[in-house]
Design a protein that fits this description.
Length: 54
């Protein structure tokens, strides 16, 4: 990942430079990936019983 791409992702997530001091590159990447999946439609959602079995 290039520096401009990283900074673009920070802007897209609304992360300021002062907040960026508290975050790692990996955390920013994870936040971006999760945001991209927010609109994903999931056919099956786990309930508490499924989590307990897990």
């Amino acid at each position: 990942m290039t520096t401009p791409l990283f900074l673009l992702r920070c802007v897209q997530l609304g992360i300021s430079l002062s907040e960026l001091e508290l975050l790692t590159i990996g955390l920013v990447n994870d936040m971006f990936c999760e945001r991209e999946r927010d609109d994903e439609e999931w056919s099956i959602l786990a309930d508490q019983d499924a989590m307990d079995k897990f």
